[in-house]
Amino acid sequence: MTKIGIIGQQNDEEVIQLKKEIKKLGGTPIIIDFKEFPKKEKLTITEKSIKFNNLELLTIPAFYLRQLGYFWPIPQIELTKAQWMKYYKKYNENLIDERENLSVKHSMIRILSMETFLVNPYECFMYHRLKPLQFYLLAKNGFKIPLFLSTSDPAEMQRFIKKQSSVCKPNAGGAEVKTSEDFIKENDGIITRRALLFQKRIIGRDIRAFATSDEFIGAAEIIHGPQIDYRVETKDVKPITLPEEIKERTLQAMETLNLRFSGVDYIYDTQEDQYYLLECNPSPMFYVFEKISRINVSKKLAGYLLKNAKR
To answer: Which of 173, 200, 227 is a domain's end point?
Structure first.
């Protein structure tokens, strides 16, 4: 049976679902979980080998990269000045630890990109954390996206906000998308110390589409509460049929970004009858989407991995 590696945490819903579908299709899923790395889980790279514990990863022909981890050496607590001075040496040690651990993990992914079939390749896995780069590439290649501005200049921010209704979102993903006015009102203190990302606000229907590089899987409208960001209060996921032109545009956008699998977000402006491409997610959550919509994303992804596995 063909082995398929899944790089992610054992309890991740997407990992669990994909594992089930790979088994159903006759494959052997192998979970590579870095949660306890490097204390319990061991990774070793040589000129001929990549071993995770005692498993040789280069014998696995295909991988799905769900989660790798990011640089985060700062403690998630509020520290007093005295505590910080006490922690400072440990912080610098953690800084070096994180840098070294990330080096070996990211080297592993780069090697697997070259030697196996990896979904998604290293260079595009980071698009979620590099939104300005993704938007630049999509715009450069002719895709209809909302106007955007990524800047650390407060004057540029104000010019953009005054020119049109806009939203503010994190350059590196994660935080809630809000109107620019609400975000600045709530976070006025960070404007001079953090680059921010703004987009022209498009009011319409939120749509999530899924595809592999060779097949459009399906799409659904995300019904949500009054918030701009549908992740805050998703009420329903209703399957829809997109125009063939938009299906083709989805595959073209993925090709532009070298994505092999993606959850692609659109907003449909009903007044203009226009679909705006918001972003292509290189590691989309699909468990809840397919549970509600009945669009079996994980089965399609499992089949895609098995079909393309290098033997």
So the answer is: 200
